[in-house]
């Protein structure tokens, strides 16, 4: 009968830093499991985020339906969440138009009006040129993004802005790029800008 192992030999086997053949086999089998667990954890996290977002949308939809049934105007947290994700916005006139259109149109009105008022205010031609340049940029972006778009082509604000831009372009094409705007042309453009702003 062999002698029982000494406590020192047991301790050395138990606490040895080099893994045994059996430990190496177990570790190699665990490697794919750790990767799979990580993959499952990532999928579970993504799924829980998507489920949470879907629940929030469903809750917002139910709240919106309840508000519409009660005739509420979409105030509060639900209204704020709804406005964040809604690509459309209600105008002063009560029409629902794309937010991007409204932003571009408001920018044209603001920059063109500032440019025309700079002309009145002063003798600083550099300041006037900066205002005119920003108006040109906003007009180009507006026309580049919304000219010919059926969703806004018949809107009063679009028609009024198009009239203002056309008046400005016709004047400068006839009189030259450095000509001063006469009061009647300027007033016509400002009236068109005011009409457009009333519908935004």
Protein architecture, described:
This protein has 200 residues and is an all-alpha fold. Helix content is 75%, strand content 3%. The chain is built from 7 helices and 2 strands, in the order H-H-H-E-E-H-H-H-H. The protein has helices spanning 7-14, 21-70, 76-85, 99-121, 125-146, 156-175, 183-199; strands at 88-90, 96-98. It has a two-stranded antiparallel sheet. Strand 1 (88-90) and strand 2 form a beta hairpin. The model has no long low-confidence stretch (mean pLDDT 75).
Write a short abstract of this structure.
The protein is mainly alpha-helical and 200 residues long. The protein is 75% helix and 3% strand.
Q: What is the mean predicted local confidence, pLDDT?
A: 75
Identify low-pLDDT runs. none
Give the CA-based shape.
elongated
- Rg, nearest Å: 34 Å
Class by alpha and beta content: mainly alpha
Trace the largest sheet across and list its strands.
Answer: 1-2
Could you estimate the helical fraction of the residues in percent? over 70%
Give the quaternary arrangement of the chains: single chain
What labels describe this entry?
single chain; 200 residues; mainly alpha; two-stranded antiparallel ribbon; 7 helices
């Amino acid at each position: 009968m062999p002698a029982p192992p000494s406590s020192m030999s047991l301790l050395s086997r138990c606490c040895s830093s080099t893994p045994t053949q059996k430990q190496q086999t177990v570790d190699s089998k665990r490697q794919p499991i750790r990767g799979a667990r990580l993959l499952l954890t990532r999928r579970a996290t993504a799924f829980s985020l998507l489920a949470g977002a879907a629940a929030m949308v469903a809750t917002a939809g139910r709240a919106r339906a309840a508000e519409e049934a009660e005739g509420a105007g979409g105030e509060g947290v639900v209204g704020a969440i709804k406005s964040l994700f809604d690509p459309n916005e209600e105008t002063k006139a009560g029409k629902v138009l794309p937010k991007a259109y409204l932003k571009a149109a408001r920018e044209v009105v603001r920059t063109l009006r500032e440019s025309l008022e700079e002309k009145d205010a002063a003798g600083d031609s550099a300041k006037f040129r900066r205002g005119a340049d920003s108006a040109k940029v906003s007009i180009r972006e507006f026309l580049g993004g919304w000219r010919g778009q059926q969703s806004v082509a018949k809107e009063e604000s679009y028609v009024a802005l198009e009239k203002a831009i056309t008046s400005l372009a016709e004047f400068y094409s006839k009189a030259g790029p450095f000509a001063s705007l006469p009061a009647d042309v300027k007033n016509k453009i400002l009236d068109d800008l005011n009409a457009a702003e009333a519908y935004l």
